[in-house]
Fold this sequence. Notes:
Elements lengths: L5 E5 L17 E4 L2 E5 L7 E5 L4 E5 L5 H10 L1 H13 L12 E4 L2 E4 L1 E3 L6 E4 L2 E4 L8 H27 L5 E5 L6 E3 L4 E5 L7 H13 L8 H10 L3 H11 L6
Parallel strand pairs: 3-5, 11-13
Antiparallel strand pairs: 1-4, 2-3, 4-5, 6-7, 8-9, 9-10, 12-13
Amino acid sequence: MEGPEQQDFFADFAPAAGVHHSPPPPAEKARESIVFKRSATARNYRLSLRRDGIAVATIPARGSVREAERFVEEHREWLERARSRQRSRPRAATVWTIGTALLWRGEFTEIRPAVLGAKPSVCLAADVFRVPRLEGDLRPVLEARFIRLAKVELPARAWELAAQTRMSVTRVCVRDQRSRWGSCTAAGVISLNWRLILTPALVRDYIILHELMHLREMNHSARFWACVEEVCPAWREAEAWIKRNGGFAGL
């Protein structure tokens, strides 16, 4: 599942077998703020928008630049809408100090000093985190605390939802993924982005259930979305939240 660093448009637009393709392009080819990049693992053409406003057109191993250009033109309206949403989104602070509002468990919450013994601590809503000091940029230490907490909470929730949906999971990993909210393998390994701890519970559960349903359907076919609908009827609401908020610098 794509996530915090970029928005993506996927399509079942795989190159046909046995047709002639133009020579492979350079690793990256910039054109009109669009980078054309070949992927050895991609099965379909893909168009994504990075945080910096650069669009990336991914070319499958057996694809061609010409087809990628056609794919981009066919989805030009989507790209313009994505850029418009990106421009309209507010940006979270890059430096976190006392009083900074952060997205925390789905709500923007101010960092406030906590009265808890002699050691300095801050609170975000009901959660309290130890910090070395209350002055200066708190982001590095708080992100480390968030990741530690995510490595406890997210796997526990994933195992719980796997049991509820009777899906066979072999392992759950929490990672600092740069372009995905989550992913899974056919072997039953689920990887989750630690930033899910910042999102509402609905979004967190939707991403986990989304990956679990890939264990039934390793694609984004109509059958896959029917599986998602069955286990997460409010998935459209979660997707809407991601589209509205997924590009925040704080995510």
